[in-house]
Amino acid sequence: MAEDNNQSTGGNDQAAGQQNQQQLQFALQRIYVKDISFEAPNSPAVFQQPFKPKVSLDLNTSNQQVGDGLYEVVVKVTAQVAHAENGNTSFLVEVEQAGLFRIGGIEGERLEHTLGAFCPNVLFPYARECIDNLVNRGGFPPLMLAPVNFEALYLQKKQRAAEGAAQQSGETTQ
């Protein structure tokens, strides 16, 4: 009899788990380039000297709700490559890689985490490929950006926000 009770309880737990899974929804609707730019301001002179790059990279993410359960997430990558010795800009490339995500059953901190870390992880390889292609078409070797840990960046952003809030509350109490 004890076995019968355990099995039926397990069945109820399984049914509850299936209901939770049915309520959670995450689907990539579309991936697209929102903005793209490539500049080689010192060409063709830049091709007449040895290529000694000094890379400056800027990475940002943003998101916004664009419909009921529909979110746009954007990963913006800006890379400026200058000659290491004379500082002249070899090229500047900027890509805003975006995606539409349908998300349901996720709220609060979990939704924020999904939009701030998980979705950018999905989009970044597309941005990286786009940048490599643009740079190559500009006559330069591919930039080959390293993978980015958006999970760590998200946690750092949350920590900075918490520290900023703590400092503000400390200032108002003094």
Automatic annotation (TrEMBL):
UniProt cross-references to InterPro entries, sorted A to Z: SecB, SecB-like_sf
GO cellular component entries: cytoplasm
Entries under Pfam families matching the protein: SecB
GO molecular function list: unfolded protein binding
Keywords: Chaperone, Cytoplasm, Protein transport, Translocation, Transport
Cleavable signal peptide: none
Location of this chain's protein in the cell: Cytoplasm
GO biological process, one term: protein tetramerization
Gene3D superfamilies membership: SecB-like (3.10.420.10)
Biological function: One of the proteins required for the normal export of preproteins out of the cell cytoplasm. It is a molecular chaperone that binds to a subset of precursor proteins, maintaining them in a translocation-competent state. It also specifically binds to its receptor SecA.
Subunit annotation: Homotetramer, a dimer of dimers. One homotetramer interacts with 1 SecA dimer.
HAMAP family (alphabetical): SecB
UniProt similarity note: Belongs to the SecB family.
Identification of the protein by name: Protein-export protein SecB
Gene: secB
